[in-house]
Amino acid sequence: MFLQLTLSGVSQGAIYALIALSLTVVYRSTTIVSFGHGDFVMAGAFLTYVLVVAIGVAFLPASLVAIAVMFLIGVAFSRGLVRPIRGGPHIGLALMSISFGFMLRGIARTVWGREVLPMPRVFDIEPIFIGSVVITGDALFIISIVAVLLVVFFTVLHFTDVGKMVQAVYQSERGARLIGINVERFHNFSWGVGAALGAVAGVLIAPISLLHPDLGASFLIKGFAAMTLGGFGSLAGAVLGGLLLGVAEQYAGAYIDTTLIDITAYLLIIAVLLIRPRGLFGRKVVVKV
Amino acid sequence: MQTATGTLSKRRRIFWLVPLIALALPLLTNPYTQFIANAMLIYTLVTLGFSVVIGNLGQLAFANTAFFGIGAYASAIASTSLGLPWLATIPIAGLAGALGGFLASAAALRGIRLYYLAIVTLAFGELMRWFYTHAGALTGGTDGLPVPRGRDFGLALSSGTVQFYVFLAITCLLVAGTVNLLRSRIGRAIIAVRENEIATASLGIPTSQIIVTAFMWSGFIVGIAGAMFALHTGRVFPESFGLTQLIVNFAMVLVGGLGSVVGAVLGAVALTALPEYVRAFPGMEEIFFGVIVMVVLLVMPKGLASLLARFSPIFQQRYHRD
């Protein structure tokens, strides 16, 4: 029971980790918290759905197209809508991301209507039995994709020249500018990567859950909870926070009450910010005055 | 200089004409426009409450729909369970909203600001919505809670026209109250926190408490707006207090002008009337409000209030830096 719960928690948490990581990438590189990111996740799932169900593309190419399109949408959003108001107050930037996400949701709804539609199953991986623990094909698929993605992500970040450049901009934007890094282009790229990572999460949930235009909001909060728990702005913290949140939801649902699954994330956010605002790995966030 | 500001504030007395003109409004209109006019008054308060926190205080907050819902449910519960007349539920809704404001912003006392505060308030709002859905015995769950309109102090509150006058009186009182609050020491401290929190704190002003106070005032007036909403719609549902409501409120605040009292009224009036025409198609409302906010941010970041200020200095935002 305990192992089984942990396993489903990790598979669910892997998706949260991805969303939290995508939020962190944007936050670390642009200091903007993307409040519309849940809708990027939804849009990724939605595009995959439309390509697979309405047009009849196979799942794998459909998901790659969806991720690429979301990357471009992220870049376009950064160039067209964020750049003009970058000098302004943070409230404006947050509102810009919210309203862009809201627009995406509206577009999905005009196409989708009010119905909730399941996507046809795409992978038929046999479940694996280890003693009394069952690993479903979906869980296996999600965990392995996310694991590969994370390994690639952190390898690029820590062991390549591009990664070192990225770290340089993270450390000091001004310093990066001085050594000739095009920070504007870097911001656009980060929004693209953030949107694409969010879209990967969307693609992964598309075949296993019911899709509807509003699903972004709940995933956004899960992402925030994961980020808060892991430590705001910490990439590794986002991943760990996501996994812990997924597991915590399963435990809370099984050992206390199933309705608690929905609010574990909210309770976690409130508890972490009241008890240890910097989370597990974050720097001190409290404004000392 | 003294005389100049003196005449300016004298000329601002012209604003009292607005409610006077509004008094005549129900005589001219049909029940449908009446309904919209009532909604405008409700949203004026919601927008104003929101504007105090995000405009004057300069903090990002998502708990506005939570305060709206808390007020609506407090009013509905007080009238169904306690049998109180609707008017008597108004102070209860206001106090419940203020308590909500305290809870949503309590993290500010721990030094939590901006994005973190935004995330806490977002979680608080969603938590409240979960509560409405799951505390079925108290809130009626997804079926919602009816608001009895029979019990009142001799006022036929089921009539849209009577509602309008009651709403108008409440709205005027709370708008005047907010204007006065913003002029007071607390109000100036609220704006000082937005401009420079560290400098404000160095003057010995307890900035965290100021933030909580602003949230509580916001919760108070939005809570009362919630009670009005409960009466206006006749039934309170959890779904009325979700994220769609939130973006509509954001749009109203922005279109009117962040932190401007005149702007709050303008934004609420403009955007309550318009979307009636876009509601017919699923998704159009989201696109409409999303695009409106984006366009306003790009083209007119100070909102309609700043356009009016070009015509006459009486519309200038006294509480906003240019």
TrEMBL record, chain A:
Cellular compartment(s): Cell membrane
Protein topology in the membrane: Multi-pass membrane protein
InterPro entries: ABC_transp_permease, BCAA_transport_permease
Keyword Magnesium on entry: no
Keywords recorded for this protein, A-Z: Amino-acid transport, Cell membrane, Membrane, Transmembrane, Transmembrane helix, Transport
TM stretches of this protein: 15-35, 47-77, 89-108, 128-157, 189-211, 223-248, 254-275
Protein name in UniProt: Branched-chain amino acid ABC transporter permease
Automatic annotation (TrEMBL), chain B:
Alphabetic keyword roster: Cell membrane, Membrane, Transmembrane, Transmembrane helix
Transmembrane segments annotated in the record for this chain: 12-29, 35-54, 61-80, 86-107, 114-132, 162-182, 203-230, 250-275, 287-309
UniProt entry tagged with the keyword Membrane: yes
One Pfam family this sequence matches: BPD_transp_2
Bilayer topology term: Multi-pass membrane protein
Localization: Cell membrane
UniProt cross-references to PANTHER family, sorted A to Z: HIGH-AFFINITY BRANCHED-CHAIN AMINO ACID TRANSPORT PROTEIN BRAE, HIGH-AFFINITY BRANCHED-CHAIN AMINO ACID TRANSPORT SYSTEM PERMEASE
Protein name: Branched-chain amino acid ABC transporter permease
